[in-house]
Each structure stands twice: as structure tokens, then as C-alpha cells.
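INFO batch 0412 | record 1 of 1 | parsing
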Amino acid sequence: MEVILKTDIKGLGYKNDAVTVKSGYGRNYLIPQGFAILATPSNKKLMEENNKQMAHKAEKIKADAEAIAAAIGDEPLEIKAKAGDSGKIFGAVTTLQISDALKERGADVDRKKISFKGEVKMIGEYELEIDLHKEVTKTLAFKVVAE
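INFO prediction complete | emitting C-alpha cells
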């Protein structure tokens, strides 16, 4: 089943992309939730027209995303957490803590755009990925230190 996405969906595609999904996923989840519409010929024409009109806006949005990526820089973040003697922290480092650390650096990034592999439950160095735009992603190192 081919659908046109109305919003960005992580792991599937971005807004106004035509993607192929299993029919149950499209019929039972994407379309009823308002995340997608069927990719009929008329909807495809409408999508192409919208893409033409949004091309100018998209350049500005991409430039803004690149500016945020530049503001973040390449210097590793330092996240402080309470930890035991063995180096295991109490709880886990979350994307909210990363987002707050980026705000202190001067880059306001939504926590939903931040991802890292696995859970961060030990003191050490890790890597995260920030998905700022369809074509702009930023990989950044961060260090978890004991308070």
C-alpha cells in the first residue's frame, strides 16, 4: 500500500514523502491517526503542487537547521548525574537532560529529535544523533560524569 505522509515519522519518512507500507499499518494506524493519506493519482498531484510551493520555505528551514547545527558545535556535552562507587548512575540519562544541556549551549533542540543507542546508565562517553532536518543530522559526543 502506498501512502503520502502528512507528518515526519521516525524510521519511515518525512512530510510529503510517498512511502510503501503494509496495508494493515496504513489502514489501521497511519490513516486513522491522520499521519498519512492514500497515494491516489489526485493526491500525488496535490502533493507535487504543495512541494513546489514549499520549496522556497524549505530552503529557509534547512538554513535554520544548519545554523542550529553550527551553534551546537563539535565540543562534547557534559551531563552530570548522581552515581554510585561502581560508576553506575541512579536512573538513566534521558533526551530531556540532553536537550537542557543544549539549551545552555545556545541551541534550542526538541527532545524528540535527539536519539542515542541503548540506555545510558553508566559513567562514560557516548554518542548521540540529532535529526534537525530531512537533510541535516548532527552527531555529537557526550560525557556522563558523577556529581
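INFO post-check: The first helix runs from residue 23 to 30.
INFO record closed
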